[in-house]
Amino acid sequence: MKKAVFLAENTTTFQKLGAKFTDSILPGCENVPFRTDAYWECYLRTFSVTLHHIVGTCAMGRSSSPDAVVDTELRVIGVKNLRVVDASVMPVVPVSNTQAPTIMIAERGADLLILAHMGHTERPGTTGPAANHTAAGDNRIVPSQAPPPPPVLKSVLKAVNSKFGVN
Fold first, then answer.
1. CB neighbours of 52 closer than 8 A, spacing ≥ 6?
2. What pLDDT digit, counting tens, does each position of 23-64 carry?
3. Residue 70 has what DSSP assignment?
4. DSSP character string of 83-119
5. Does some domain include residue 23?
6. If you average pLDDT over each of 3-7, 108-112, 161-165, which comes out highest?
7. How many Cα neighbours within 13 Å face the side chain of 10?
8. Per the domain annotation, does 57 fall within a domain?
9. Residue 147 and residue 120 in contact, taking contact as beta carbons nearer than 8 Å
10. What angle do CA 150, 155, 159 make, to 5 degrees?
11. Does residue 104 carry a pLDDT above 70?
12. Which of 135, 60, 157 is nearest to 102 (CA)?
């Protein structure tokens, strides 16, 4: 912080622009001497914000991991009938925007919920009745191979399909 203020106030380029750090004392730091190390610490603790997408508050991992909150099927470890299906399951912040990975987590979570509702315990991509993959390593549920949806989902699927003109 001190270096940034120094650059803003003492380099030729910034001086040409008339850049100057404010002389106003930040609310919350009035009792700390202005521009001291203690002031900059107060400033940073008071004014810091994150511009990143927050992830990892319910990190996915093995049940033996002390940091894991959900397992690889998005089930909350130690709690029955509760899943977390959002960006919070990412154990680390991706180096990109979180939108695409969050959509993928939601798609996978939807598949897992549908299978659980239909009574299947296997994950997509494993052996057994839920192994609806078309190629090695392909874990997608293929509608033509999937078991029929339960009655409640049939009506939802019918309404969605009719809205988008799908037969």
1. 93
2. 888 888 999 999 899 998 998 888 776 666 778 889 898 888
3. B
4. B--SGGG-SS--SS-SHHHHHHHHHHHHHHHHHHHTT
5. yes
6. 108-112
7. 6
8. no
9. yes
10. 140
11. yes
12. 60
Cα-Cα-Cα-Cα torsion 86, 75, 78, 69, nearest 10 degrees, comes to -40
**Whether this model's pTM surpasses 0.70:** no
- Would you list the DSSP string of 26-52? PTT-TTS-TTSHHHHHHHHHHH----S
Please give the pLDDT value at position 24: 84
150: confidence class by pLDDT, cuts 50, 70, 90: low
* Residue numbers annotated as active site: 53
**Tens digits of residue pLDDT in 16-32:** 888 778 888 888 899 99
Closest alpha carbon to 26 in 46, 3, 52: 46
Domain holding 158, by residue range, is 96-163
Helix (H) or strand (E) holding 16: helix 12-17
Q: The tokens of 29 are what?
A: 């730091």
Contact between residue 76 and residue 83 where contact means Cβ atoms under 8 Å apart: yes
For the chain, how many residues are written? 167
Residue 151 has pLDDT above 80, yes or no: no
Number of compact structural domains in the chain: 2
Same domain? For 43 and 100 the reply is: no
